[in-house]
Design goal:
Radius of gyration: 18 Å
Strand content: under 5%
Largest sheet: 2 strands, antiparallel
Helix content: 55-70%
Shape: globular
Oligomer: single chain
Number of domains: 1
Structural class: mainly alpha
Length: 223
């Protein structure tokens, strides 16, 4: 709930935002590669073909330091066999429902307070699937994988982005845990959405999840 959060460091936000908007190229050194990933998922959005699921998970996971092969479960199984027999077959089994969720969210023009519930539930759904393969909370991989399928809707979560957003947005009250959400990703998204709304109000510019990621990760928040 957004009312449980507030911006706490407008000075740092404004300083880093000005720097980002003045020279976005420094924050977008990976734009060519990212556009390849966006195009890959745009052209192959479904989860009903073995090789396409394998390619998307392999390329996104490895590119974003969140490989599905890192696991606690099935560690005696060779990585190739684990990927083929457990991960891809498991994704195929859940593909129809995952595709239905992604198709619905792809219709959203942005992330906002009206649709964030649906977005968080879809992230939790995929996180649960990944956890069933690995016995690890793959919230970062889930956010990145879903982001490339729905770039307007999913914020990119990782430890760096989370560390930096804690310097900008404060949690005022505790939220009652919701079993339909990943609690840590929920907290991150509420902070990120408040930051997005603040920046849009200040600049009168549309801010995307990619903008938020660039500001949090590629803009030094310590000076």
């Amino acid at each position: 709930m957004l009312e449980n959060y507030k911006i706490i460091n407008e000075e740092i936000i404004n300083k880093k935002l000005d720097k980002y908007l003045a020279d976005k190229s420094k924050c977008e050194m990976w734009s060519f590669g990212n556009n390849i990933l966006y195009k890959m998922c745009e052209d192959n959005p479904k989860h009903n073909e073995f090789s396409k699921i394998a390619g998307k998970l392999w390329i996104i996971g490895r590119s974003y330091a969140a490989a599905i092969e890192r696991r606690k479960a099935n560690r005696k199984v060779a990585s190739e066999e684990f990927f083929r027999e457990i991960v891809i077959k498991g994704m195929l089994k859940n593909g129809k429902e995952l595709d239905s969720k992604i198709e619905r969210i792809q219709k959203y023009l942005c992330i906002n307070k009206d649709n964030i519930d649906d977005i968080l539930k879809t992230h939790k759904y995929l996180t649960n699937i990944f956890e069933s393969f690995t016995k690890l909370e793959k919230r970062s991989l889930s956010s990145k994988y879903l982001h490339f399928h729905c770039p307007k809707a999913f914020f990119i979560y990782d430890s760096r982005a989370n560390k930096n957003i804690l310097k900008l947005v404060k949690k005022l009250h505790g939220n009652k845990p919701d079993k339909d959400y990943d609690e840590e990703y929920q907290d991150f998204c509420y902070r990120a959405l408040l930051l997005k709304n603040y920046i849009e109000t200040k600049t009168d510019k549309k801010i995307t999840p990619r903008d938020i990621d660039n500001i949090l990760v590629f803009t030094n928040l310590d000076n």
